Amino acid sequence: METGIVKRIWSGLILLGLAIMAGQSHALGENWPAWRGPNGDGTSGETNVPTKWSGTDNIAWKTAIPGSGHSSPIVWGDRIFLSTAVPETKDRMLLCLNRLTGKIIWQKNVVNAPLEPKHADSSYASGTPATDGEKVYVSFLDGKDVVVAAYDFAGEQKWICRPGRFDSGLGYCVSPVVFEDTVLITACGNSTGVLAALSRSDGKKVWAIETKAHSMCFTVPLVRQMAGRLQMIVPGNKAISSYDPKDGKELWTMDGPSEQFAATPVFDVKTGLVFASSRYPKRIMEAIKPDGQGSITTSKDKVVWQANLGAPDVSSAIIAGDYFLALDKAALCCLETATGKLVWKQDKIGPAYASPVMANGLVYFLNNKGEMNVVKPGATFELVATNELGEKTFASPAISQGQIFLRGFNNLYCIGVPGK
């Protein structure tokens, strides 16, 4: 009898301890599991995030990364995952690092193939991986074949597939998006491309669509509940379109406003508007009501506002309260989300390829020189801090467990020493 009571007491204590540990883990911070973080829009719920550092101060660790690439790091628990490429050997690789020490735990060669044509500022590892906490998903190009592969946290390849074709003279940049039991891929090329949902368990196609009205685009889809339904917003193929991510059915599409896209769209819950920007041959920002059906190109009430000033090129925008913040070349522009009215413009923040992130009410803008400007969004421009890393950076930051992870041209940095 007493033995049974003791066992029950110990079981209760163990469960209580696990609950406390889980609560502490949650309190410590979020994972950053994919491009633009846990919400897909660059925002973080963390509050204890550093605002000041340099190339040597407030740096927890710095690790030299083999090869090169402009993809962003992702973080899950005590693991960091990063894609990279070694042009000399034509290898495209997935790396796993220890989050606490920066030590490379393993590196796996995913693809060995001829180097695709690319823009001088692009890389052969520009797509950011994604994870669901069990597998890591990464995409590269093999000739004109889109390659998607899945690895477990021990570095064992679980599957690899080729869901479609892609061609471009500017490079390849596809960042997988985890959605329910699938991995979403959008690859829009010059003469061929594919949108697909792949099974997370084995990589088989759940649905796939060959792209039309071909034009090079490098956007990552945004999946949200909008206008009372689940939508996947894909700017590409000379249009902005919405699909049902469960079956690939097109919900609505709007031609233009230009031909090519690079910035990831963002959605504002308060106004109910989705924001998407074209990059070439004209940069035009549109705020769209996502409640349409079929072709809405001629539906004048669906575009609430358009803007040229403040329309991002490569760097994606961010929503902060009533404000829309985006880099227009070297200038940081703040617009009202509801109207598109320019609130303020600050020169010499960019130019930047990295997309901004936001935590604790502050927005972090990383430019190509490795300079991070920390801005408090509001009716007037307020610069909180400027930090010099001392290394060029095209990759976007990641935030997790009170630290910021920055990928430079040569190194991965962990910023924020615990207790400092």
What does this structure look like?
With 420 residues, this protein is mainly beta. It has one domain: Methylamine Dehydrogenase, Chain H (7 Propeller). Helix content is 6%, strand content 44%. The N terminus is likely disordered.
Structural class: mainly beta
Ends: how far apart? 52 Å
SS strand fraction: 35-45%
Shape category? globular
Chain-averaged pLDDT: 91
Q: For the largest sheet, list the strands in their spatial order.
A: 14-15-16-17-22
Low-confidence stretches: 1-27
Write the layout of secondary structure elements.
Elements: H1 2-28, E1 59-64, E2 74-76, E3 79-86, E4 91-98, E5 104-112, E6 130-131, E7 135-142, E8 145-152, E9 157-165, E10 177-179, E11 182-188, E12 193-199, E13 205-210, E14 222-226, E15 229-236, E16 239-243, E17 250-255, E18 260-261, E19 266-268, E20 273-280, E21 285-288, E22 294-295, E23 303-307, E24 318-320, E25 323-328, E26 331-336, E27 342-346, E28 357-359, E29 362-366, E30 371-375, E31 383-388, E32 398-400, E33 403-407, E34 411-415
Question: Descriptors for this entry?
Answer:
Methylamine Dehydrogenase, Chain H, five-stranded mixed beta sheet, 44% strand, 420 residues, mainly beta
Short description:
This protein has one helix at about 1-30; strands spanning about 60-65, 75, 80-85, 90-100, 105-110, 130, 135-140, 145-150, 155-165, 175-180, 180-190, 195-200, 205-210, 220-225, 230-235, 240-245, 250-255, 260, 265-270, 275-280, 285-290, 295, 305, 320, 325-330, 330-335, 340-345, 355-360, 360-365, 370-375, 385-390, 400, 405, 410-415. The chain is mostly beta strands. The protein starts with a helix and ends in a 5-residue tail after the last strand.
